[in-house]
From TrEMBL, chain A:
Its EC number is 6.3.5.3, 3.5.1.2. The lineage of its organism: Bacteria, Bacillati, Actinomycetota, Actinomycetes, Micromonosporales. Gene3D superfamilies: 3.40.50.880. Keywords: ATP-binding, Cytoplasm, Glutamine amidotransferase, Hydrolase, Ligase, Nucleotide-binding, Purine biosynthesis. Its main location: cytoplasm. It comes from the Bacteria. This is Phosphoribosylformylglycinamidine synthase subunit PurQ. PANTHER family: PHOSPHORIBOSYLFORMYLGLYCINAMIDINE SYNTHASE SUBUNIT PURQ (PTHR47552:SF1). Signal peptide: none annotated.
UniProtKB/TrEMBL annotation, chain B:
Its main location: cytoplasm. The lineage of its organism: Bacteria, Bacillati, Actinomycetota, Actinomycetes, Micromonosporales. It comes from Planosporangium flavigriseum. Belongs to the FGAMS family. Part of the phosphoribosylformylglycinamidine synthase complex involved in the purines biosynthetic pathway. Catalyzes the ATP-dependent conversion of formylglycinamide ribonucleotide (FGAR) and glutamine to yield formylglycinamidine ribonucleotide (FGAM) and glutamate. The FGAM synthase complex is composed of three subunits. PurQ produces an ammonia molecule by converting glutamine to glutamate. PurL transfers the ammonia molecule to FGAR to form FGAM in an ATP-dependent manner. Keywords: ATP-binding, Cytoplasm, Ligase, Magnesium, Metal-binding, Nucleotide-binding, Purine biosynthesis. It catalyses: N(2)-formyl-N(1)-(5-phospho-beta-D-ribosyl)glycinamide + L-glutamine + ATP + H2O = 2-formamido-N(1)-(5-O-phospho-beta-D-ribosyl)acetamidine + L-glutamate + ADP + phosphate + H(+). The active site is at H101, H150. This is Phosphoribosylformylglycinamidine synthase subunit PurL. Residues 806-815, 823-845 have a biased composition (Low complexity). Substrate binds at S149, H150, N151, H152, R171, Q296, E368, S369, Q370, S596. ATP binds at Y104, K146, D556, G593. Monomer. Part of the FGAM synthase complex composed of 1 PurL, 1 PurQ and 2 PurS subunits.
Length: 226, 866
């Protein structure tokens, strides 16, 4: 039986169907979750997709964090459920305090979409175990508020505990501190990433298929822990 | 015109959250405005509304019809239609619906040609007159697409003007029953280094990007053009495309007596009042800044919800008809839906959800508040529609019912304020055959040919010219603009800018997809509007064809000066005739589009600028041909015939600031031939690369194809050919292709068999890291890249981190290459990752002697109608 991975749709979610496609291509069954429905429908992992939830009008992710489904996600994440937040999903995870730090307006103040090289630094997560530490991957980045910031102590702690999952290399697209592109929680089941692995899963439409590794990783992780 | 200071340019979000103060300001500004600015607001009439009864009893009351843009005879006709003077609300409605923007009163007599000359089509499900044209592309699926202008609002308020331009065209697509799947934008600005361009361009780009990105629609292509003629009047033309199951096609007719009229979406405010009559239908003058309240304010989040709600309503079969609200707001939607069905309506205006309760009836009717749709629903299904709206958090309000009275009757606070035949608003607007006259300067202009200008002669001079053109604002790298657009969302973007066309996968199973290109050339059209329009069509057609797609349909945005100027009207008539003839010759119909007049500041109109969008279909997008060199050793072949055609060219403009002569010859039979060869060749996997030749000629095509994946080329021209002409002529009907070695013979045989002019001109050279023309010059790719990519950042601000190394740039723009049949020597992906494939075999053979300028005869040179 294939794994079931939930993809939450908030009002204003945009990359939800893309995340579902990535799950499918990785060999799992995507399950659509609805922001107003607290039921996670027994999924094995959850993805919070990119977009502009609730228009991002107050502050990115600030309203989505209070949706019914997030109460369940926060609780399940505490119990070890793998959760991946991509772009807006990363912002929501920070707002929900599942991850430290915050995503602010890009340093140059423009929305930017480009194909971006990342170096995977932590492979001890549910979502990156299939990569090799130090591996460079190419996936799209596209955001207006992707500049990762945290106080120095938090940044030092993230560095010290190996919780920086990926860094931007060959150019930092948004001014993120210490070139941080992705971070994880202590347990490694929750990962937030600003670039979009779900847009690098097919040679025809992506700059590479490097993004697929995030989705196959979680399947391997779930298989190993089943 | 002073630049308008903006404090919160990139933050549509912040403006929306805190919208109360912004809206409180708007009416104050409107009412306080001086004469032209308050043209959208009729004077106060005293106690209570101006009702139908009151209008009948006060026939001699003076009405501000002139201020509203209506002429004496038009006003007289309104009185004749109604048998009394119009009420204040009715007058507002007629002034809007009979404006140039809504009624096409100056253009109608010419636009008929699009239908009259349209080639027969079994696949066109909806055409001109609908919200957008619909073309069937498979047994079950159809595509709908349309381009529309939002020029005037974008000059007044660049960010919101451009944003709502995108929002408006997307709703047109949605109204046909389609899910919007992509947008494109064709932008024209004044001189790149003019101070006001610094105000307008960043705002327009952030508006296009901000709205489309928040809507989750990939931006897959378009144009960015600079020319001083657009200084006081930039052009913002947006295109959207959507896909629908054939049986989900919607229409706008308010059919069925007793059916309920529902307004779905945002609340109605004072924004945009008078937009079409004030902004779109008059020429700019020094008072333009005070017209800002006439620009609508966009909320892409609301539109996203509106899209999802509408699609759910369609799929559940809950509605009879639907119409979007854009320019002319409720007035247009109510009258057009009722008129389309030959029905009447009873509407209670008090039910319209308002942002400001103090709004008067004529304001509610004229408001251009965005993100609204009008639905016609059977009474039994109203609850289901309201439930869908509630699920998505969108307001939905029943405003009234469809009647068989044939009258549009609108009440407000218990009194009838409108009682008109809807057809008189929607269909019976004035039609003018305006006087036309060829511009008196045209003969002199055409006599001043660029072919006689001094040309670069030595290799060094040619080298310098290549670099100068590559760095020029019109030809340079547009990443500064396009990286502000999301091109990935929805996961079906196969090709996007800077490719020749946007290519989008429609069906993940079969690979069925579409290609779209949007092109125009105002300089060519200035020199010869008939052939200029044909050239725009030919370029868009060719851009679609080089990807391997088959062109099937056309949309257009016709941007011109004031129709009251006979020379502008002549340009318009010539362009329409050219486009209609061109479509007939190419065998593809115009399915819809828009006309934008009054694009002029003071007495100087813009260059006539027909922008043409062509839609193509591809049975399998995996076979699409990209524009960048992807494999070392591929043989470069120039297709089509090169003539010494330099008038109106980018070279003449950049190096001599010259515009004169006649544009390149148009040979649409040759375009068709080229397209058919490209389609066959891509189907058979012969092509590694195909790139359209247009602005900047072969030189610029080589630059762009080389920079795409950082793979250079070695070119050699035969001695008898003038390398300058071959490099910089802008002859139409040409493309540059790169053919894998094993495919060369088969491809050349195909060209010969079809009698397509072709010439081997060199090879893709992965080792050289340069663009080299043997015996003339050699330019390292890094030098070209530096020239090309630094222009826009220097003008509009260097974006931190934007200056990656050439290698990183190359890698980041990497495109996974197609795999025709496994014998492409080296895939693009590997090419970029290996940076430059130093070990790759370099072909010493640079080809047979080339005779491109003298290639096999196409047709004789007297194609033009002139």
């Amino acid at each position: 039986m294939s794994m079931r991975i939930g993809v939450v749709t908030f009002p204003g979610s945009l990359d939800d169907r893309d995340a579902q496609r990535a799950v499918r291509l990785a060999g799992a069954e995507p399950v659509a979750l609805w922001h107003a429905d607290a039921d996670l429908h027994g999924v094995d992992a959850v993805i919070l997709p990119g977009g502009f939830s609730y228009g991002d009008y107050l502050r990115c992710g600030a309203i989505a964090r209070f949706s019914a489904v997030m109460d369940s996600v926060i609780k399940a994440a505490g119990d070890g459920l793998p959760v991946l937040g991509i772009c807006n999903g990363f912002q929501i995870l920070c707002e929900a305090h599942l991850l430290p730090g915050a995503l602010t307006r890009n340093e140059h103040l423009h929305f930017r979409n480009r194909d971006q090289w990342l170096r995977v630094e932590s492979t001890s997560t549910a979502w990156t175990a299939g990569f090799q530490a130090g591996q460079e991957i190419l996936i799209p980045v596209k955001n207006g508020e992707g500049c990762y910031v945290a106080d120095r102590r938090t940044l030092d702690e993230l560095e010290g505990s190996g919780r920086i999952v990926a860094r931007y290399v060959r150019g930092n697209p948004n001014g993120s501190q210490r070139d941080i592109a992705a971070v994880r929680n202590e347990a490694g089941n929750v990962v937030g990433i600003m670039p979009h692995p779900e847009h690098a899963v097919e040679a025809l439409t992506g700059p590479s298929v490097d993004g697929l590794g995030f989705f196959t990783s979680v399947l391997a992780h779930l298989g190993a822990h089943a | 015109m002073t630049a308008t200071p903006r404090t919160n340019e990139t933050s549509a979000a912040a403006e929306r959250v805190d919208n109360a103060p912004a809206e409180a300001e708007a009416p104050a500004t409107v009412e306080a405005g001086s004469a032209p600015a308050d043209a959208g607001v009729a004077p106060y009439y005293g106690e209570g509304p101006d009702t139908v009864a009151r209008a009948a009893s006060t026939p001699d009351e003076e009405q501000p019809f002139l201020e509203l843009g209506l002429r004496d005879d038009e006003y007289a006709r309104i009185r004749q239609i109604l048998g009394r003077r119009p009420t204040q609300a009715e007058l507002a409605m007629y002034s809007i619906m009979w404006s140039e923007h809504c009624s096409y009163k100056s253009s109608k007599v010419h636009l008929r040609q699009f239908s009259e000359k349209a080639p027969k089509s079994d696949t066109m499900l909806a055409g001109i007159g609908e919200n957008a044209g619909v073309v069937q592309i498979s047994e079950k699926l159809a595509v709908t697409f349309k381009a529309e202008s939002h020029n005037h609002p974008s000059f007044v308020e660049p960010h919101q003007g451009a944003a709502t331009g995108v929002g408006g065209i997307v709703r047109d697509i949605l109204a046909m029953g389609a899910r919007p799947i992509a947008v494109m934008d064709s932008l024209r600005f004044g001189a790149a280094d003019h101070p006001d361009t610094k105000r307008v361009l960043p705002g327009v780009v952030s508006g296009v990007g901000g709205y489309g990105n928040c809507l989750g629609l990939p931006n897959v292509g378009g144009e960015v053009v600079f020319d001083p003629c657009y200084q006081g009047n930039p052009l913002v033309n947006a295109l959207s495309v959507g896909v629908l199951p054939v049986d989900r096609l919607q229409n706008k007719a308010a059919a069925g007596n007793g059916n309920v009229v529902i307004l779905l979406g945002a609340k109605t405010g004072r924004d945009g009042i008078g937009g079409v009559s004030v902004l779109a239908s008059a020429t700019f003058d020094a008072g333009s800044e005070t017209r800002r309240p006439s620009v609508q304010v966009g909320d892409p989040f609301m539109e996203k919800l509106l899209i999802e709600a509408c699609l759910e309503v369609y799929d559940a079969g809950l509605i009879v008809g639907i119409q979007d609200l854009g320019g002319a707001g409720l007035t247009c939607a109510l009258s057009e839906t009722a008129a389309a069905a030959g029905n009447g309506m009873e509407i209670n205006l008090d039910l319209v959800p308002l942002r400001e309760p103090s709004m008067e009836p004529h304001e509610v009717l004229a408001s251009e508040s965005q993100e609204r749709m009008l639905l016609i629903v059977e009474p039994a299904k109203v609850d289901a529609v309201l439930a869908v709206a509630q699920k998505w958090g969108v307001w939905a309000t029943a405003l009234g019912t469809v009647t068989d009275s044939g009258r549009l009757v609108i009440t407000w606070r218990g009194e009838t304020v409108v009682d008109v035949p809807p057809g008189s608003l929607a269909d019976d607007g004035p039609v003018y055959a305006r006087p036309m006259r060829e511009p008196s300067d045209l003969i002199l202009l055409q006599a001043d040919r660029a072919e006689t200008l001094p040309r670069p002669k030595t290799g060094d001079e040619l080298r310098e010219t290549v670099l100068r053109l590559a760095a020029s604002p019109n030809l340079c790298d547009k990443t500064w603009v396009t990286e502000q657009y999301d091109r990935y969302v929805l996961g079906n973007t196969v090709l996007a800018q800077p490719e020749d066309s946007g290519v989008i996968r429609i069906d993940e199973e079969s690979g069925l997809g579409i290609a779209l290109s949007l092109d125009g050339n105002g300089r060519f059209a200035r020199l010869d509007p008939y052939n200029g329009a044909k050239l725009a069509l030919a370029e868009a057609y060719r851009n679609v064809a080089v990807t391997g797609a088959t062109p099937v349909a056309v949309t257009d945005c016709l941007n011109f000066g004031s129709p009251e100027d006979p020379t502008v009207m002549w340009q318009f008539a010539e362009a329409v005739r050219g486009l209609a003839d061109g479509c007939q010759e190419l065998g593809i119909p115009v399915t819809g589009g828009n006309v934008s007049f009054y694009n002029q500041t003071g007495a100087a109109p813009i260059n006539p600028t027909p922008v043409v969008g062509v839609l193509g279909v591809m049975s399998d997008v995996a076979k699409r041909v990209p524009m960048g060199f992807s494999a070392d050793g591929d043989v470069l072949i120039l297709l089509g015939q090169t003539r010494a055609e330099l008038s109106g060219s980018e070279w003449a403009w950049v190096t001599h600031e010259h515009l004169g002569g006649t544009p390149p010859m148009v040979d649409l039979a040759a375009e068709r031939l080229l397209a058919s060869v490209l389609a066959t060749a891509s189907e058979q996997g012969h092509l590694g690369t195909a790139h359209d030749l247009s602005d900047g000629g072969l030189a610029q095509a080589l630059v762009e194809a080389s920079l795409r994946h950082n793979l250079g080329a070695t070119i050699s021209f035969p001695d008898e050919v003038d390398p300058f002409v071959l490099l910089f002529s802008e002859s139409a009907g040409r493309a540059l292709v790169a053919v894998p070695r094993g495919r060369e013979e088969a491809f050349l045989a195909l060209c010969t068999e079809r009698n397509l002019a072709h010439a081997r001109i060199g090879v893709v050279d992965g080792r050289s890291g340069a663009l080299e023309v043997t015996g003339q010059f050699r330019i390292p790719l890094n030098e070209i890249r530096e020239a090309s990519s630094s222009t826009l950042p220097a003008l509009f601000g260097n974006v931190a981190g934007a200056t990656g190394t050439a290698t990183a740039e190359a890698a980041s723009t990497d495109e996974a290459a197609q795999e025709p049949e496994g014998d492409v020597v080296q895939q693009a992906d590997q090419a970029a990752r290996a940076e430059v494939a130093a070990e790759a075999q370099v072909a010493a053979d640079t080809g047979e002697p080339v005779d491109a300028a003298d290639a096999p005869e196409g047709t004789s040179g007297d194609d033009a109608a002139r």
